[in-house]
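WARN retry 2 of 3 for item q-0093 after timeout on previous attempt; input resubmitted unchanged.
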Amino acid sequence: MSKKKEQKVLLNEEIRAPQVRCIGDDGTQYGIISRDEALERAEEKGLDLVLIAPDANPPVCKIMDYGKFKYQQEKKKKEAKKKQTKIEVKEIKLSVKIAQNDIDYKVKHAREFLEKGKHVKFRVFLRGREMAHPEAGIEVLEKIIPLIEDIGIVEKKPHQEGRYINMMVIPKKEDKKK
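OK item q-0093 returned
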């Protein structure tokens, strides 16, 4: 899609409209002038005539340094990408026959991940005959919920997916409310 947008930008002689509304690089309004006159003004300043709004009547063109403009657009895209947050999901595996002290140990790790703002996926693997009683896996995950309620929110309740019982926990967003 970005390649199509780049191709759509028309420069200098590529602009076919006989009349254009022209704007200078400093924001000066030249009004509605002929395309040739707009090109002359752009050449005088050593800049490009760029078609900004082709659908307007008459089309709007701006006199600017297109290379610099393109560079700034790329810079803005990179800044926006930096500000995006990547959600890291940490997976904690459990079994149906897990002891309470092991649950406490795994929950301690889950709490650390949640404090760092990471999402935590708890998985209980069902082996062999345990598949006949998936509610045993759900019970294990439901024991965990009260241990992490203060720091995290259960986004997806325990549910079965094949041989696994999964539950997704996300961190509470308290710092944004302050």
